[in-house]
Predict the structure of GDSL-motif lipase/hydrolase family protein.
Amino acid sequence: MLHHDQQSNDSAAQSFTNFIFGDSLVDVGNNNYIFTLSKADSSPYGIDFGPSNGQPTGRFTNGRTISDIVGEALGAKSAPPPYLEPNSEANTFLNGINYASGAAGILDDTGLFFIGRVPLREQVSYFEKSRDYMVRVIGENGTKEMLKKAMFTMTIGSNDILNNIQPSIPFFSQDKLPIDVLQDSMVLHLTTHLKRLHQLGARKFVVVGIGPLGCIPFARALNLIPAGKCSEQVNQIVRGYNMKLRHSLKTLNNELRSEDYNATFVYANSYDLFLKLVLNYRQFGLENADKPCCGGYFPPFTCFKGPNQNSSQAACEDRSKFVFWDAYHPTEAANLIVAKALLDGDQTVATPFNIRYLNDL
């Protein structure tokens, strides 16, 4: 048993612990360690990321992700490392672990075209291994206490929908599900994984809804949508899914809050936030919500540094003025605006309350 004074030191050391699950919006380098076409390990990715001195880390943006920014605001000294990075285990106690993987989805088959990725089911299995490690070090009770205070963040689902809207690729085409079946299947699987994490001791959840995918340069190009407009067809699919997800989280809150273990599921409404940002970007001090800062506006959309370029030539000149970093992902400037709202926003942004409030519970 820990002495009382040692215990208080330990809780002071545990400033903010976050276990992060998701896709390329929050991947911090897991995909660097697997054979995959979904990678962000070359310049100019990471060009504005301070801790790496502008070198790529595997983050799919120019700087910090939303999870990085939220963590900093809540006192994390550094971001949780990728689970697949060698020797990341010890971080389980310091600031958590990041299991997210570019191209991953809620459904196991999502992202098949990219070959390697860590689907959500596998990400949760990796957490089980992290938990086993914790139990070996501090015992079952210590682990339970620590996980009660930790945050579990889930940012996933975009790829499940993108896979469904893009044209079938020969040899890789799976049967596409009807939209309502896809939405229901995604919610069902996500809810199952959330319940599993709850059984393993998670109590504070942030589940990020899907953003307006119809507004990303990739979806606009695919559907030949003119500048300043979004694909309503794609956004409608996202809205339908988010509505079902929100309903499911409400049910989970009612079911699991009434029992002796007090779980809270916060729904983060990134859809409305991002849509507002894309449609009113100038009000937020940005100048371009149309083109990606890096990479093509048409297939194959890749963002990379040419042989005779330096990193900054490969990207747009003023990266702090663009909403989109590449054809799929927001810039750090956009991530900052969204993260700030999720941290401190009202109930239109996060329900039943914002992330800072959840952290203080």
Remarks:
- Residues 1-13 have pLDDT under 50 and may be disordered.
- Strands lie at 18-22, 151-155, 204-208, 264-268, 288-292, 322-324, 350-351.
- The first helix runs from residue 4 to 13.
